[in-house]
Design brief:
- Helices cover 0% and strands 48% of the residues.
- The chain has 462 residues and is mostly beta strands.
- The N and C termini lie far apart (106 Å).
Amino acid sequence: FANVCAFGVGAWSYVMDNYTDTSDISGTEDAMISAEFDFATNPDSYFGFDHAYARYSPEYTDTLTLYYTLDCGDSWLPFWTQGGEGLATAPDNMNEFIPTADEWDSMMISLAFLNGQSSVHIAITNRSGWGNKLYIDNINIFTPAIVNPSWTDFAGLPDTICEGDMVSFQDWSLNYPTSWNWTLPGGTPPVSTDQNPVVQYNVAGEYDVDLATSNIAGGDNWTYVDHITVVPFANLTISSGSTTICQGDGIILTASGGQNYSWSSDGYNVIGYGSNYFSFPNQTTTYTLFGENSLGCQSSTQITIIVNPLPAVPTISLSGNDLMSSSSASYQWFSSSVSIPGEIAQTYMPLVDGTYSVLATDINGCTALSADEIFILTESKTRTSIGSDAVSISPNPASDYLNISGLNNNATVKVISLEGRLVIDSQLQPEQSIDVSGLSQGLYTVSVITNGNVTNHKVIIE
């Protein structure tokens, strides 16, 4: 018991302590069980009590439930329940709640549904959520003397909810009504004859509520317009640069449409918080985004990131004067780690000494670079001299034209920079010159190719 009382009148009240324990007592129950009542000779009785309660916080709340039994306790059935915000008579309090005189409320619950039952026991039960103290006072079961028509009033608790949540309607009517007719558009159920129905609302919107009450002296009805507000869940979306990546690539997921975001890769365990999440998935992964709306109600959406495996590391083999990559969808050749413009075939014929590699790309756009760089000494690949006379190139150094002599047949002449870039690719007739006036100063290799034979010459361009 506690030495506080309802509305400051009296000396004591019954207290159910959900607060004092230092360990979590959630789920434990305390109960007060009444003596036997006869409602066959006392029809249309009421159960009344005063209570005071403050939640510890929205996460730690407690519940008060009234039960009845018709078989001396072998089975108990609930007929009224309230908890959390709907039960509270004072603001949340993280300290021990001790109510003041004005932090109490009165409840009057009709027992007309027990009319005709001659052996009834009632239990007042507290189910702890490790919240705060709940005080009960002035418990009374009585049969009222009805003189005046009922005067209708009520409230839905809470009156603002998220889609799919429940509203506990509380009858606050005066003069002891004995019948109730609720009209609840948008709710499930849409009508009810319970004194205190619990109704689910699944679609966002604002809804009227109407209640008609009566007793043997008459009654009335009352409508609250837009009494229940149902807030939609956040319309969450996830954006990403792509939903298909290659193994080893990173992905940035960006959330929008809500607030207080968290991320999961298995739908349960949180792996990150905030509107952006950066990850390197090594296999195809479905990410779940959780977010809240303005009421803090949580919803979720998902995105699947497909992770394609990397292609096999390409290998390079020598085929005559050509370098050949193992098979892939596409290729890019490199000389000393610098890409060679236009060299995107499976084979490449080096024209200068150097170190070569190939980047292979598969049908998913994933790439792999050859593991072993290949060294090619191009001059060692000169098969024969071209014709019976030696090929000569003059002048060297040159600035405008290169004269190539010693050709007996038409030839292909390629001029390659030190970076391996092909800058001139020309077909020449014997004793024809090449215009090099557009080249930058530097050292170049001139390859003369005819009938499959190659000679290479170093030339300086001034």
